[in-house]
């Protein structure tokens, strides 16, 4: 039950607070005063979109909040507080449930148990065969069947898509087979390895370094061991310096330096002879030949070596796929047959359930309509047409889709509701359907001028039905008929005023005196 509704800074409403009764709550007022907009605020609160242009000019955001009383897990009543804010700058909204941030999906999940809104717009929806089918599915004894149908159909379509993808790939690769085999032969003949070219270049550079080393080593040994070895000449120099020392003792130091250097040359000779690079088994001519072979393959395929290695792997995969795809095609064919069989089983159950639901719904609708002023001979029925949902090798699978037919008067053949129903008849159809739809969850019923096109004795019958529904569950009724407004347990008047050049929409609960005045206004009675 909707206990309290507050609207702030939404369009013409600056601040309105409504405390509803548990039975029938009537909203009345002049045309254009903003009655339907209050109901629109409830829709916004329960998940419907609303544009940023509806935030009151000059305000940062609009806020709609409400207190619902719901039955808790232990059966005791519990408050459910919902607030939704609409930002003027961005048009984005924020949702709070019991003061905790929530999502729009949460609101949509809560809505069926909170409100059921029926409006004049619903008359146009009622004329749509797809909407009529959704109504019928709402009365299935096994309400999970449409979801099972969707899941089974999605499974079939997934396999069909896989088969289509496989067939397209087979066709494409079959056209390319000759070229793929040419690429495989060219790549296989050279058989390049990942990173092989870089490795060969490193080895080639190492061989060139070995050549430079041998050349430098030979020159060093030649300098040390030429026709007259450098060590022998240093020995002669040392002996000559020794002969000079008696004449000048400073030559002793020079002689010692020459002797030291002669000994160093001996060690240097040994070090140079020991200096060698690991010769290994590399052959620079073989490396050059391999690099040339790789370069030729790169030119032929117009790709880098790493790309060619990847291409070789892809070519092998594609050719292997072509060799094995027949098995995959057979496997997918079996899977599609199994998925189609599962879909057929679900459709069989769904079609039977829809026929059963149609019988029960039409019987109930006939009773409801008889209580709303229709002829006791009026008959409602669903006509079913098979609609293909799958076509495959095993044949076609169809689901039965129902369209609402009725006979308002005896002696007439059944005709589609959208072909013969008047506005007043559609209003009563909506009222009857809403009463049946709300039997289990018992949400707050919102009727927005559902009494359009009705008058006279029929209006009295509608009033009686509205009273009976309001005794069962809470109702918010927007009406222009005083005959209906007078039945309300609580009466609110919506009015539009201009103050200091600004327009405001307000909503006030009426006392008995004000109710009498409002009913007189609605009746066109002047004081």
UniProtKB/TrEMBL annotation:
Top-level taxon: Bacteria
Coiled-coil stretches noted in the UniProt entry, renumbered to this chain: 156-223, 258-314
Biological process terms in GO annotation: DNA recombination; DNA repair; SOS response
Key word Oxidoreductase present: no
InterPro entries: DNA_recomb/repair_RecN, P-loop_NTPase, RecF/RecN/SMC_N
A Pfam family assignment: SMC_N
Family: Belongs to the RecN family.
Function: May be involved in recombinational repair of damaged DNA.
Name of this chain's protein: DNA repair protein RecN
Protein's organism: Humidesulfovibrio mexicanus
